[in-house]
């Protein structure tokens, strides 16, 4: 081969490419690289998804249950005097009365009331045989007044009917039972005032303090419906 021919070949091989061809070559090469990278990422995601789907669940099995809790509020009643002692002040000849107020609390609207009371004994001694007691006036019924209730019989007066149970050794007389219906919603929570009559007929009564006992009994009528 001649020297000129050899030079022409070398010039053809080692001659720099035009800039436009270089830029296009680089662009094509970058596209191919990015395509390969994208294909790799897509393949990786597909492989990862396949692994995730195929992985067994790590959650333990569970069960739930529901039960019912119930309770019953029974009928109940309580009573107490508003104060422990009631002072009648001066007792003169003739009739007089003692007014005693009670607080009754019940979770029902209907309540039965009965009273027992003793005569008044000198020195608070029911065994005192030397001085006669001041007797109850059993001819006059006990007046009963409730704040928010009425006597279903319409009288609000409880008649004395027979001997009652002794209270602290004091002999007593008891009244009939009256039923009171409250106007409160499902409750009987109020004051009840009772007036008990005595009659001092002795012209000359030994001076001193005379005292007795009064007891109230409150009941829930058997006809009251229990809640179930």
Give the mean pLDDT: 83
Poorly predicted tracts of residues: 1-7, 24-30, 35-52
Assign the CATH topology of the largest domain: Immunoglobulin-like
As for the number of domains, it is 2
Portion of residues in beta strands equals 25-35%
**Rg, Å, rounded:** 53 Å
Structural class: alpha+beta
In whole angstroms, how far apart are the ends?
123 Å
Explain this structure.
By secondary structure, the chain is α+β, with helices and mostly antiparallel strands. Helix content is 21%, strand content 31%. The strands form three sheets. Strands 3, 6, 8, 9, 10 and 13 form a six-stranded antiparallel beta sheet that branches. A five-stranded antiparallel beta sheet has the order 1-2-11-5-7, with no helix packed on it. It has a two-stranded antiparallel sheet with strand order 4-12. It folds into two domains: 3-54; 77-219, Sandwich (Immunoglobulin-like), CATH 2.60.40. It is built from two helices and 13 strands, in the order H-H-E-E-E-E-E-E-E-E-E-E-E-E-E. Residues 1-7, 24-30 and 35-52 have low confidence and may be disordered. The termini are far apart. The chain is elongated.
Observed structural traits:
five-stranded antiparallel sheet, about 20% helix, disordered N terminus, elongated, Immunoglobulin-like, six-stranded antiparallel sheet, 13 strands, alpha+beta, 2 helices, about 230 residues
């Amino acid at each position: 081969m001649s020297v000129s021919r050899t030079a022409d070949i070398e010039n053809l091989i080692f001659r720099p490419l035009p800039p436009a061809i270089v830029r296009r070559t680089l662009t094509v090469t970058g596209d191919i690289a990015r395509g390969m990278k994208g294909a790799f990422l897509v393949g990786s995601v597909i492989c990862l998804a396949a692994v995730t789907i195929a992985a067994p669940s790590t959650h333990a099995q569970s069960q739930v249950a529901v039960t019912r809790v119930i309770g019953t509020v029974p009928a109940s009643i309580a009573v107490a005097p508003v104060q422990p002692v009631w002072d009648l002040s001066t007792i003169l000849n003739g009739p007089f009365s003692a007014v005693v107020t009670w607080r009754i609390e019940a979770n029902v609207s209907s309540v039965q009331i009965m009273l027992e009371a003793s005569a008044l004994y000198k020195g608070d001694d029911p065994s005192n045989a030397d001085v006669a007691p001041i007797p109850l006036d059993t001819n006059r019924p006990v007046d009963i007044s409730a704040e928010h209730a009425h006597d279903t019989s319409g009288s609000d007066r409880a008649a004395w009917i027979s001997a009652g149970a002794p209270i602290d050794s004091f002999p007593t007389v008891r009244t009939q039972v009256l039923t009171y219906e409250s106007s409160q919603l499902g409750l009987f929570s109020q004051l009840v005032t009772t007036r008990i009559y005595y009659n001092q007929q002795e012209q000359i009564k030994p001076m001193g303090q005379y005292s007795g006992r009064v007891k109230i009994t409150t009941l829930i009528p058997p006809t009251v419906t229990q809640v179930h």
